[in-house]
Design the sequence.
């Protein structure tokens, strides 16, 4: 099973040019994933124009071996095809990589997470 977890509001900071998931919100989604025998494997976010890893992304993102980060360009008109986003995998640093393969016929659920916990979308 695949689950897309969308950031809610409590413990999520959204400002122009800034998106922060606080420790309580991370704890909520990681604990929920573990309790449901799932793994958090990637984080996807958008930028206003180009898809790149900013200094904040590189330094403040989850620096866990094998973790993926994707940036969706042009958030006001984003491409739907994940292959047109830019993807990186963390090894000892962020390395550009191809988009992971997705089965469009597979069931994907969605949840909302934040500092208040995880709930059905």
Sequence:
């Amino acid at each position: 099973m695949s689950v897309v977890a969308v950031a809610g509001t409590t413990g999520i900071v959204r400002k122009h040019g800034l998106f922060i998931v606080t420790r309580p919100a991370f704890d909520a989604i990681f604990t929920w994933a573990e309790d449901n025998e799932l793994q958090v494997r990637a984080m996807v976010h958008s930028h206003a124009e180009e898809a790149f890893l900013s200094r904040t992304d590189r330094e403040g993102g989850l620096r866990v071996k094998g973790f993926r980060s994707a940036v969706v360009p042009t958030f006001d008109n984003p491409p739907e095809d994940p292959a047109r986003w830019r993807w990186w995998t963390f090894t000892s640093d962020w390395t550009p990589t191809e988009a992971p393969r997705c089965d469009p016929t597979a069931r994907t659920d969605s949840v909302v997470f934040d500092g208040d916990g995880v709930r059905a979308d």
